[in-house]
Automatic annotation (TrEMBL):
It holds the Pfam family PTS_IIA. PANTHER family: PTS SYSTEM N,N'-DIACETYLCHITOBIOSE-SPECIFIC EIIA COMPONENT. Keywords: Phosphotransferase system, Sugar transport, Transferase, Transport. The modification Phosphohistidine is found at residue 76. This is PTS N,N'-diacetylchitobiose transporter subunit IIA.
Length: 103
């Protein structure tokens, strides 16, 4: 199978990277650097997709049968993933507002 804690760290690391890239994209957009902001959002999406791929592997391994133990680290990873997804959605909207303001 796989080492659960090491696998879960893949969610935490990638989700954290995604969230950080989102906020850097927002800072760039705030300064009017939309090309840089768009590039950072693409990178954030790639990191989020990597985290989601790890989550999907865990769900597939569990098969809805409780095969994967729910640990505090796993809950923490899920929290990171969900907050990074929310950050990406909100930051994307804020960047759109900055674009409108700049036009």
């Amino acid at each position: 199978m796989f080492e659960l804690e090491e696998t879960v760290m893949g969610i935490i690391i990638n989700a954290g990277q995604s969230r950080s890239l989102c906020y850097e994209a927002l800072r760039q957009a705030k300064q009017g650097h939309f090309t840089e902001a768009d590039d950072l959002l693409r990178q954030a999406t790639a990191a989020a997709n990597a985290a989601h791929a790890v989550q999907t592997r865990l769900i597939e391994a569990d098969q809805g049968e409780g095969k994967i133990p729910v640990t505090l680290v796993l809950v923490h990873a899920q929290d990171h993933l969900m907050t990074s997804m929310l950050a990406r959605e909100l930051v994307t909207e804020l960047i759109d507002l900055y674009r409108l303001r700049a036009a």
